[in-house]
Prior knowledge:
It contains 11 helices and 10 strands. It has helices at about 1-15, 20-30, 35-45, 50-70, 70-85, 100-130, 130-150, 160-185, 190-195, 245-255, 280-290, and strands spanning about 210, 215-220, 220-225, 230, 235, 260-265, 270-275, 295, 300, 305-315. A hairpin with a 5-residue loop joins β6 (about 260-265) and β7. α1 (about 1-15) runs antiparallel to α2 (about 20-30), α4 (about 50-70) packs antiparallel against α5 (about 70-85) and α6 (about 100-130) packs across α8 (about 160-185). The protein starts with a helix and ends with a strand.
Amino acid sequence: MRTIVIVGALLIAAGAALTGQDLLSAAKDQYASAAYEDALSTLNRLDGSVAPDVARQADEYRAFCLYALGRTGEAESVAESLIRKEPLVRLEAADASPRLESMFSDVRKRLLPSLIRERYRVARAAVDQKSFAAAEPSLADARRMIAEAEKLGVKDEGLSDLSVLVDGFLQLIKSSADQKTEQLAVVAAAAPAAMAPAPMRSPAAVSARADASGAAAAIPRVYSADDEGVSPPVVLEQRMPPMSNEMQLITRAAKSRGMIDIVIDETGRVIDTSVRQSMNAAFDGMIVRESRKWKYRPAMVDGAPVRYVKTLILVP
């Protein structure tokens, strides 16, 4: 009780002169003395100008106090806000009991699938624009979060597909960087027009097509790996076209990697194939033709088959 009185007296005496760190330290002392309401009041005196580390610790102790007071829903809401800002944040506070660790872990487990998909969508948009440098940090974040989700035993059928895509895109970026480094060592004589990438169709393009009058003809929604609640297609037959020894030598020497999008309909047939990243001009045509023979068990949403765009990374 003496500690509570001393801390309270210090707060009154110091008044507005207290820094963010002072208030945080006082709140920690109050929490340690089981003065949870007082600690919350102290934490509420912090403003938005405090350092990020102080703000993060303050939110941790705010969650601790709310949890100790039995206000579990509010505590989880604070934990959710923290985890959305830093998905892999760890509780470093000495006051983090096993029950608090478990609460934060449960919230993280619930949020990770949507947070992973958010990072993937950001990365995918950057890849579509050929902004590999912008895509790489989001992909690296997604890779770490997927590893954490696996560690926590998160149950989400779509995460396995996302894991393959994230690894594939990271390899694609590395391959592209390696090629760029090699190209910088050689004086390029090609005209800028020859170097311009061919236009690619985005997966969203298959969601609506223009009819002869120019009006969009509505077709069923096309889902993808970044949609939640979707069971991805299951491969029944996905045979790649044979690549000649000469073609393999060429693509490997060029360190080429390809990327295609295939749209799988409600019956498991491939109804559209788009080359997003060419591995080899001759092989592109072969794989587009071969893809029409592939068969899948269709993607499912709420027990019903749906259309799904699946991205494949091609490695020679």
